[in-house]
Amino acid sequence: MAVAQLFARDVPDLACPEGTDLLQVLWCPIDHEAGSPRVFLRWRRSADVVDVLADQPEPPLMESNYYLPEPCLLHPEQVVEYQYADLLPERLRERIEEWEEATEHDYQDLSIAEGWKAGGWASWHLTDPYPMMCECGQDMRLLLTVASNEWSAGYTWRPIEDEPTGTEPSYPRTREPTMITIGRGYSLWIFICPRSFEHPHQTIMQ
Ligand SMILES: [Zn+2]
Ligand SMILES: [Zn+2]
């Protein structure tokens, strides 16, 4: 089933294979490896994608309604992220710790954005970070994060459009526009190989 559609013109950092400018993300809404849906990536030319399927083919079976996306429009915003602290050189980590003490800022919270995103860095929550390696030996890069929440209780990444007005419904919550939940509110990361779009992508839940 269709999950996301990203146009290169809306997402400047989306590096597409030559001759394509559109990424379609689909998944099989049944738990596969590591308790998450199986993801399929389709790179296409937007000029070829004209007729909208009014009635999407419905899967006969779903793991749960958490894998059924609520139709949403994207309002992409570009932010600069910084590598997960544990993966930085030790000297730099020490300087960050000093900076955190001096400024009372939280590097972990500020360096990596929450919510759905294309590109950027992965913020490891469930396990210690480990290298995502393609079968060809190349370090993979994060293509897309499918997040359960757009922002969390710390509010650091809450867009100004989502500031509470007091009149929004308590359900669905503004931080969950897609109504997708991965695991117990985790994220599904989709990694691809920078060497070739032909190499299989990998997913991991964190
Ligand atoms: Zn399947
Ligand atoms: Zn590869």
Automatic annotation (TrEMBL):
Top-level taxonomic group: Bacteria
Record-linked Gene3D superfamilies: YwqG-like (2.30.320.10)
Protein name listed in UniProt: DUF1963 domain-containing protein
Source organism phylogeny: Bacteria, Bacillati, Actinomycetota, Actinomycetes, Streptosporangiales
